[in-house]
Specification:
This protein has about 400 residues and is mainly alpha-helical. The protein folds into 2 domains: about 190 residues, MFS general substrate transporter like domains (Growth Hormone, Chain: A), CATH 1.20.1250.20; about 200 residues, Up-down Bundle (Growth Hormone, Chain: A), CATH 1.20.1250. The chain is built from 17 helices and no strands. Helix 7 runs antiparallel to helix 14 and helix 11 packs antiparallel against helix 14. The protein is globular and about 55 Å long.
Length: about 400
């Protein structure tokens, strides 16, 4: 997996770099997922309504979206390494606040600070890959990165449940703090600076001009919309499916087991990208992935509209859909970031912010519909997947403008 071109600027192998970036990036989704099983205990401990307890999730998501919007441009201005270390320090402050605060307000504030800190890892990891690799190589590296990352969030709910049951919900934050300190040490010891001083520009005004020029590109807007739509499908399904499963008489454990179908599908899609991105081409993989997403959405909707309510009928089509998303999303991300080689951090921030914003709007909108049946979520999935598929034709200039980067 290593090659001479990728070693020249970072001084460590691709495998080592990917493992480090994966640990840094996974901190965000792991922190979110490991906490979810503790929500009922938090609600009972403080004697608050469910809506208030859930604010520790929703406000953290908003904070994460703000963080990814801010940290990317800051990493363009000050370098990748300092922003990662600052983010991990903020993450530590949030963990301490959650662990030591006796009040719900302190816990809520700690969750917000946690999310702000972990958001730095996501955008900086993408920017680091954008600094080092051209478009096609970056897509493969992103796919490898995601394959590693997906393991953490998948097992995090189980780990969180075990910690909550055996040690108490506050112990989750002690566990996160220990992991946080280890990540800080690894980043301080091994993370290279990939943003050269010459590329950091003259300040905020220059960054603002470069960012404005970036969003004016039809290509970048097209990729941003496509990535946001894909993420909205995933985020909305995993947010609504637990309620659907419980209403149909299934347990949370069953949901966790069936969720693996979605995770495995996405993992396999990323694996295909790592093997065939150069041979097949990024745009063909994007088109294939979005087409698979639409076909599987239609298949799943057909099953649930026909009256099938078994977990297999709900989750297996979503597993195939996840495979399509695994094909498309790394290539869309790489293509967008490659359009702005001098402001890769800002490009990654805008892409991530759009994903979070579109996803949040979709989740909030779907909460207005019935959650005791899989029909609404699958109708939504078909509509949004169709929009993503039509974008392949409505935004042809987006793909025509992209060319593989010549960076090494």
């Amino acid at each position: 997996m290593t090659d001479p071109e990728s070693r020249s600027r970072k001084g460590i192998s691709d495998r080592t770099l990917l493992a480090l970036l994966a640990v840094i990036t996974a901190a965000g989704p792991v922190t979110m997922n490991i906490y979810l099983p503790a929500l009922p205990r938090v609600q009972a401990h403080f004697g608050i309504p469910v809506s208030e307890a859930n604010a520790t999730v929703s406000l953290a998501l908003i904070a994460f979206a703000i963080g990814v919007f801010v940290f990317g441009p800051l990493s363009d201005r000050f370098g990748r390494r300092p922003i990662v270390l600052v983010g991990q320090a903020v993450f530590a402050a949030g963990n301490l606040l959650c662990l030591l605060s006796p009040s719900f307000e302190g816990l809520l504030a700690g969750r917000i600070v946690q999310a702000l800190g972990t958001s730095a890892g996501l955008v900086v990891a993408r920017a680091v890959l954008g600094d080092l690799y051209g478009r096609e190589k970056m897509a493969r590296m992103l796919a490898y990165l995601t394959m590693i990352i997906v393991i953490g969030p998948t097992v995090a709910p189980l780990v969180g449940g075990l910690i909550t049951e055996s040690l108490g919900w506050q112990s989750i934050f002690a566990f996160l703090l220990a992991a946080n300190l280890l990540i800080y040490f690894l980043a301080w010891r091994h993370l290279p600076e990939t943003r050269s001083i010459a590329d950091r520009g003259g300040g905020a005004a220059e960054l603002a001009r470069a960012s404005l020029a970036m969003v004016r590109q039809p290509a970048f807007l097209g990729f941003t919309i496509q990535s946001g739509v894909i993420y909205a499908v995933f985020l909305t399904f995993i947010s609504i499916a637990p309620y659907v499963m419980v209403s149909l008489g299934h347990s949370s454990v069953e949901y966790g087991l069936w969720y693996l179908a979605v995770a495995v599908g996405y993992f396999l899609g990323n694996w295909v990208v790592t093997r065939y991105a150069t041979r097949v081409g990024l745009q063909r993989l994007i088109s294939a992935g979005i087409s698979v997403q639409l076909a599987s959405a239609i298949g799943g909707a057909t099953l649930v509209l026909a009256g099938f309510r078994q977990p297999a009928a709900i989750f297996i089509p979503m597993g195939v859909l996840g495979f399509g998303q695994g094909l498309a999303l790394p290539n869309i991300t790489a293509s967008a970031v490659a359009l702005a080689p001098r402001t890769a951090g800002a490009a990654s921030s805008m892409l991530s912010f759009a994903q979070q914003l579109i996803g949040a709007i979709a989740v909030q909108g779907m909460a207005m519909f019935a959650t005791d049946t899989p029909v609404p979520i699958y109708v939504f999935t078909v509509v949004v997947s169709l929009a993503a598929w039509l974008s392949l034709f409505a935004l042809p200039r987006a793909h025509d403008q992209t060319r593989p980067s010549q960076k090494v």
